Amino acid sequence: MAKKAGLAQELFVHGYDLSGDVSAINNASSPRGVLEITGINSSAMERIMPRTDGMLNYNTWFNDAALQEHVILSSLPKTDSLVLWALGGSRGDTAAMLVSKQLDYPLSKGADGSLAATIDCQGNGEPLEWGVMLTAGKITHSSATASGSGTSFDNGAATSNGCAAMLHVMDINSGAPTVVVQDSANNSSFSTIISFTAISDGAEPTAERKTKADAVRRYLCVASTGTFSNCVLAVGIRVGTAQDDVAYA
Description:
- The protein is mainly β.
- The protein has one helix spanning 69-73; strands at 10-13, 16-17, 22-29, 35-36, 47-48, 55-61, 81-86, 94-102, 108-109, 115-123, 129-133, 139-141, 153-154, 163-175, 178-184, 191-195, 206-212, 219-225, 228-239.
């Protein structure tokens, strides 16, 4: 990885690709409070970390075409909205994942004729998770796709602290694919560690987050099973560390 500009990025909201509608990411953060627990026998302040949070705030242009921002954002769902921000279109690029509640859809018309909104997403039960893309942005599995060394991501080392993965499915031509995340110790022999819920044509766009506890091997990839044609998807993953404030279970 290296220094890079914020170009050619993608944003997915619960299976909707809003990359062409979003004009700016204003804030993606996992703020933490501080509890002061200083004892009378201490000569300096003592503090511990309480609960953590997550938030993502972005600007979007109005677009009421099919599968664009107005369709999903104006619905103001009461259920969780899963957001995946890919900071590039390559496998291994940094990604931010957030299980959130969308707080508002404040559409406004500017004096210059613009029609736009600023969207606030507040974390729900999970902090903002910084990870990487397991797919090269949005990709298409034309049919069942097996694991392979040419499509894997090298995480650098194995971990015993689990992982969290987020799947966004934008479109399926036919059938019902099951998307899976697989790991390998040698970049050759892969096994499934996360199996997302099978999605039938007509149930998309949709998104799902799943976790795995304990061991995750060094190499990771996305595969799919089932009988289907042309599943458009994106997957991000966050591999756990011993320092995580929220453990993967």
